[in-house]
Amino acid sequence: MAEINWIAAVAAGVLGFFVGGLWYSKLMFLKPWQTDTGIADGHKGNISEATRFAVGITLSVVAAIVFAAFLGPEPPLGGAVLWGLAVGLAFITTSFGIQHLFEGRTARVALINGGYHTAQFALFGVILGLWH
Fold first, then answer.
1. What domain range includes position 84?
2. Number of helices (H) and strands (E), helices first, in the chain?
3. Which residues, including other chains, have CB under 8 Å from residue 116's CB and lie 6 or more apart?
4. In a domain, 87, yes or no
5. Domain annotation covers residue 83
6. DSSP conformation letters of 20-82
7. Is 10 exposed, middle or buried (0-12, 13-18, 19+ CB in 10 A)?
8. Within a domain: residue 1?
9. 36 in Cβ contact with 106 (< 8 Å)
């Protein structure tokens, strides 16, 4: 893992987390996500916002670091973005699809949630592919 660009990986993780702020906003998918999940205001659970953001950003950074290790040092931009799309679509979105089938959630929620992570990993690819 020493051959990864740690600064780029951490930056990708932080920026990738904040893609969710736009993805789940009124401009994009907030309303259909709220309708299908039954979450009308904020989030479920009793975790503070500060803890939710700290853990969320940490998990995103871990994902970006592992993705950077997978891509290797100095990945080409096109390949890094394609791998990001592949991970998001083929691994994450399909996994949400399976899970949502058994939880009784809609396909739309699986696509919204999986779409966020597809965009997140594509952004990881852009950052890691450009930042050498």
1. 6-130
2. 6, 0
3. 19, 20, 23, 24
4. yes
5. yes
6. HHHHTSTTTTHHHHHHHHT--SS-SSS--HHHHHHHHHHHHHHHHHHHHHHH-SS--HHHHHH
7. middle
8. no
9. yes
Residue 45: inside a domain, yes or no? Answer: yes
d(CA 26, CA 42): 13
pLDDT tens track, the chain, 132 positions: 569 999 999 999 999 999 999 999 999 999 999 999 998 876 677 889 899 999 999 999 999 999 999 999 999 999 999 999 999 999 999 999 999 999 999 999 999 999 999 999 999 999 999 998
Amino acid found at 57: I
Q: What total of structural domains would you count in the chain?
A: 1
